[in-house]
Amino acid sequence: MLKNKKILIGITGGIAAYKVCSLIRELKKLNADVKTILTPNAKNFVTETTLMTLSQNPVYSDEFSSQNWRPEHISLSEADLFIIAPASANTTGKIANGICDNLLTSTAAAFSNPIIIAPAMNCNMWNNPLIQKNIETLKSQNNITVIPPSSGYLACGYDGDGRMAEPEDIKNTAISILTEDKFLNGKKIIITAGGTKEQIDPVRYIGNHSSGKMGMAIADAACRHGAEVTLIATYETKKPYKTIVATSTQDMLSEVKQAFINADALIMAAAPADFRAEQINEQKIKKENTDGLTLKLIKNPDILQEISNIKKNNQLVIGFCAESENLVENAKKKINSKNLDFIVANDISSKEIGFNSDFNEVKIIDKSNNIKFLQKDTKINIAEKILEEIFKNA
Ligand code: PMT
Known about the structure:
The protein is α/β, with parallel strands linked by helices. Helices cover 32% and strands 25% of the residues. The protein has helices at residues 17-29, 48-55, 72-76, 89-96, 103-110, 123-127, 129-139, 167-178, 213-224, 249-260, 303-310, 327-337, 379-393, and strands spanning 6-11, 33-38, 59-60, 81-87, 115-119, 144-146, 150-153, 159-163, 188-193, 198-199, 205-206, 228-233, 242-245, 265-268, 275-277, 297-299, 316-323, 342-347, 359-366, 371-378. The strands form five sheets. The protein has an eight-stranded mixed beta sheet with strand order 13-12-9-14-17-18-19-20, sandwiched between helices. A six-stranded parallel beta sheet has the order 3-2-1-4-5-6, sandwiched between helices. A two-stranded antiparallel sheet has the order 7-8. Residues 210-214, 249, 268-272, 274, 300, 302-304, 319-322, 334, 346, 354-356 line the site of ligand PMT.
C-alpha cells in the first residue's frame, strides 16, 4: 500500500519511544521506505541498532556527520511524510517556535510535505497553557496533523492525558494522508464551528461549551481532500482556507446565508445559541443597589431552518445535534423539522466525547433514517469518516 512512499520518523526523548518500534515494523510491512531521526535525548530510550534493524536504513542523529555535500536536514526533508512520535513538550515547543537546534527540529522546519505529530508527556505538562499554546500553533499549520494523546496510566506514575496515540492510529493517519483522495475537488463547502456568544452588556455574554474543535477538524479534512472551504467560526483562527468570524447567532445567520448562495454543501457543526438578551445594555450592568438581575431572553433565528427556505435540490445540508438523552429520536425529529440531508448526532452525556474534547463518537443519520455508527475516535478521524460517509458512500 505504501510502496515508493518515503516516511521519516522523528523520535524524541520519551518512554513511548519503544512503541515506535512496532510502528516502524507495520510501515515496513506496507512496503514504505522508513528512515529514522533520533534527538540526543531519544537515545536514552531506544537504540540505534534496534531502529536500524527494523527500518533497514541508517539512523540519523547528527547534523554534521554526513559525507554528502547537501546538509543532512535538507536531504531528509524530501520525504513524503514526517511522523514525530513520541513528540516531547520540548520538541513540540521548538518546532512551534521555529527553533532549529538539532537534526530533528531543523528537518521539521525545512519540511513542506505533511507532518504528523503524536505528543506524549506527563498530564500536567500536556495541560500547561504554554504547551497547549504551542500545540495550537502546530495545529494551525497547513501541513501538520497533531494526533492528541489519550488519557490513562502514564509511565511517570500519574493518571491523565498524555499517553501517546497508539501506533495503529498513527499508522492509519499516515495511510490516509499518503493515499489522500481528492474526492472533494471542485466542491464549495461551508462549515460552521464554535459556540456563539450573545452579549448582555460590554462585559458579559451568554455562551455554551462548544470549542469549535469538531467543526475545525471537518474544515481541515475537507481542505485536505480538495474542497474549497469557507469556515464560519465564532473565534479567530489562522487557516490556509477562507475563515469568517461570526460571534452571535444573528451574525452567523447572515454570513451563512451569504456564503450558501454559491455553495455545494453546508455543514453546521457550530452550536448557535437559541436565545439572546432582548436588550444589550450599553454600559456594564452594576451589582450595587440590586439583589438580583432578571434578563429577558428572546428567541434567536434558527439558521438551518432559514437555510431550508433557500436550499436548492443540488445543495446538501448537514446538521449536527448535541443531545443528552433520546439521541436518535431527537436527531430524527431535527432532520425533518430542519429539512436536512444528514444529521450527525452526538451524545453529550459523556464528558470524554463531544463538547471541548479531542474525541467524539457519533451516529450519522440520513433522510431515510439509515444510521451509521462511528465509534469513539479522535475528532480528526471522525471528521474524515463523516466526509467519506456523506460525499463518497451516500
Ligand atoms: O465544538 P466542539 O467542542 O468540538 O463540540 C462539538 C459539538 C458537540 C458542539 C458539535 O459536534 C455539535 O453537536 N454541534 C451542534 C450543537 C447544537 O447546536 O445542537 P442543536 O441540537 O441545538 O442544534 C441542531 C442543529 O441546528 C445544529 O446543526 C446547529 O448548528 C443548528 N442550529 C441550532 C440553533 C440555531 N439557532 N440555529 C441552528 O442552525
